[in-house]
Amino acid sequence: MIYYEITYAVPQSRCYTQSEIRGGRPIKYLYMYTSFFRNEKGQSRNKSVIVGRVSETDPTLFHPNDKYFAITGTAIPQVVLDKKEERKAKKQKRGSKITSISHGVPVVNGDVVKGSSLILKKIFENTGLSDCIKKIFDKKESDYLTATACLIASGDSTMSNIDDFSKTFVFDEPEIGSVSDSTISRLFSLCEQEDIDSFFELWLKKHKDLNEAICYDVTSFSSYAQEIQHAEFGYNRDKEDLPQVNLGMFSSIKSKKPLYYSMYNGSLNDSTQLPYVINDAKRLGISTRNVCTFDRGFFSQKGITFLDNAGLKLIVGVSLSRYKQALEVIEALSNSQAYRLPKYELSEYPGIYGHHIEHTIEDVKGVLHIYHDMNKCYDDNKILSQEVAAEIEKIKEVNDDGMPITQRKAKSLCKFHNCIKDDSNPCGYVFKEDEDKIIKAQKLLGFFALFTANSDLSGADVLSAYRHKDVQEKIFDT
């Protein structure tokens, strides 16, 4: 359990931070070394565990978990213990209203509690979801699917619980008392691609607003199941050694509703699969007249050409590591020292300075927007310091091992260093910090770039549309 009520300063030794993707967004955890040892080859190694989560507002602080207190021997503050007892008492107080439990179903004074299912059903009706389902499936099937969707919306995606949950559900068909997981499994197996396509066509017609921006992003779901068609090993965002299913989804930035999704094999590359997802979405009714945002993971010259040819009014994050032209523009701005003049500050975003130039990628004419964010600059500087320190530590480990390393290994330690072949050194190389490399990295701190084919959008408009794509990540989180 992570204690968000308290914070401690991030230790200066025996620890390191690492960002991990959870639910489509990066979360920075604090790791603490628990042991140091040498493997069978005599190489130094270590073990570490997560001892907390770095504060999102101040990267010099972290919220500890139980392992931090266990490893360091620090006593859990009384304020945390008091809050835990307070939560426990409140939970018991809420639970005291339930007079009994019948087959896992809460009962109050002899009546089955159905409040949550009524609320969820009302939401489904108001959004038009129920109407779409009823136009494709018969009454009983619609009831089954709606009950299953309500179970998932309540935060429980375990189908084995559908029987108990359905006893609290208000079905349109009175004769339905409950639903078993085997019934739902059979219904799912009978759903054809034609049914799924029909649903999306109806759903997209209900949510067709040409004046709002949409966004596209990808997530994945790991699974232990052996019979899922799309489950394959691939790049796992959660660092789990499990097969996964990839899911690409369009969402509305304004209404915060998902519009269309496509599931595909976990081994497939997201950028490679994107054209197929776009074509399917267009076939089922996604409008190409909407402004559509993509993160920099989808940035490539070939990809931008495809998206433009597809008719999308694209806004895409620029990968500076893969697009030298943008990097050169940023370096020129940084060297001029004029990028932070007051006239360039965006009034809608204090502390962010915007510049733009007409730019063509392949045959796609558009605008390259360059931004400098003061808050991002501070965060980037902390990350840079950590990366330099981490490289120094790795070089120290190599020298301590006293074993020859390959040229490839040596080059991997030269992001901020230079290496010279030296047979007198046990590892075969001598490393020296390269200040020019560090200074070059410092000049890029706080900068990021966006490309759009919409020349009529201002820098603030482009940034606003791109920043609001985090609605997609919030949908994935839920």
Automatic annotation (TrEMBL):
Protein name: Transposase
Species for this entry: Anaerobiospirillum thomasii
